[in-house]
Specification:
The protein has 329 residues and is α+β, with helices and mostly antiparallel strands. The protein has one domain: Ribosomal Protein S5, domain 2, CATH 3.30.230.10. It is built from eight helices and 16 strands. The strands form four sheets. The protein has a six-stranded mixed sheet with strand order 8-7-9-6-1-16. A four-stranded antiparallel sheet has the order 2-5-10-11. A four-stranded antiparallel sheet has the order 13-14-12-15. A hairpin with a 4-residue loop joins strand 3 and strand 4. The relative contact order is 0.20. The chain binds ligand DP6. Ligand DP6 binds next to helix 2 and helix 4.
């Protein structure tokens, strides 16, 4: 019997300048560059077991069989890894995240980063970090940014090989704290893949893409200088533009809920009162609020006190995708 297995862990990442819309949808070549931080503490652990005992691929996510759509995305990614390794072995995938999935916490990023790392290792592919990042990107665009750790930049590139993410500062460079206000744990109505597809139908799409490169430069410098004010201004500007694009796409997409807006307003008020915090929002209602370590417990406490906030999770910059001890299958 031929059997190969490996387990990998990866954290989600949250972008300060975000990926929204494609230059090449099939390859997930983004319309604009992005900058993010990989988060520690929150993680997806994925075990991949290839065996000639298995007749078909089988995918278990958080203890339950994956939906048809999720299963197909995983199988497509396994096919890419199998093609590189020249293997036809079927696989069992067991994936588990310690945070709510598909609610704007970028679970597809950590899931595809962990899956790609585990599958490539199980089939003994020796890929550079860049090649692994590019491969994860085809599974889910933002997953390329969960391969490296710390503060990360994804340049769009021109083809598959040149579109990958790399770290420009390690996790311990700056202990920024992300206080994530969980508004809803429900699956979002319109997934980000559909959002990317609709993005260019917004009259604001070109305007946003035109500002992204400059915002990326501002974010990178702000991070290198540990300048929260400059980073915060850039992250809010980009998040608001992304949601303006989503809301003006055809048909429009509204990710915010009343509590999302309540947090946005509260953060602006608290800032005026001297608590320096800034927000960003992915393709869902949850809202990420960034502050320095010294303000984190105050900010979390205040967020929890707002109406409609079910939970507040905190996360700091973390490591990239890595192999871990095999334990699930
Ligand atoms: C709003 O990477 O989830 O989180 O490639 O279709 O899986 P797919 O899209 P995905 O899009 C991320 C959208 C975002 C912004 C970001 O993380 O950059």
């Amino acid at each position: 019997m031929s059997m190969h297995r490996a387990t990998a862990a990866a954290g989600p990442n949250i972008a300060f300048v975000k990926y929204w819309g494609d230059a090449d949808a099939a390859l997930h070549l983004p319309a604009n560059p992005s900058v993010s931080v990989t988060l520690g503490g929150l993680s997806t652990v994925s075990t991949v077991l290839f065996s000639d005992d298995l007749e078909m691929d089988d995918v278990l996510i958080d203890g339950a069989p994956a939906s048809e759509l999720a299963q197909q995305r995983v199988i497509d990614q396994l096919d890419r890894v199998r093609a590189l390794a020249k293997s036809e072995l079927r696989a069992r995938v067991v994936s588990k995240s310690n945070f709510p999935t598909a609610a704007g916490l970028a679970s597809s990023a950590s899931a595809f980063a962990a899956l790609t790392t585990a599958a490539a290792s199980a089939l003994e592919l020796e890929l550079s970090e860049e090649a692994l990042s590019a491969l994860a990107r085809i599974g889910s665009g933002s997953a390329c940014r969960s391969i490296p750790g710390g503060f990360v930049e994804w340049r769009p590139g021109e083809d598959h090989e040149s579109s990958y993410a790399r770290s420009f500062a390690p996790p311990n460079h700056w202990t920024l704290v992300d206080c994530i206000a969980i508004v809803s744990e429900e699956h979002k109505a319109v997934g980000s893949s559909e959002g990317h597809a609709r993005a260019s139908s917004s009259p604001l799409f070109k305007a946003r893409a035109g500002t992204a490169t400059e915002l990326v430069d501002r974010c990178r410098s702000a991070i290198l200088e540990r300048d929260l004010t400059a980073l915060g201004r850039a992250m809010e500007a980009d998040a608001l533009m992304l949601h303006a694009v989503a809301m003006t796409s055809k048909p429009p997409i509204h990710y915010w809920m009343p509590a999302t807006v309540r947090v946005m307003q509260a953060v602006v008020d608290w800032r005026a009162q001297g608590l320096e915090a800034y927000f960003t929002i992915d393709a869902g209602p949850n809202i990420h609020c960034f502050c320095e370590l010294k303000d984190a417990s105050k900010l979390s406490g205040r967020l929890l006190g707002l109406d409609g906030i079910a939970q507040v999770r905190t996360a700091v910059p973390g490591a990239g995708a890595r192999l871990v001890a095999d334990h699930l299958v």
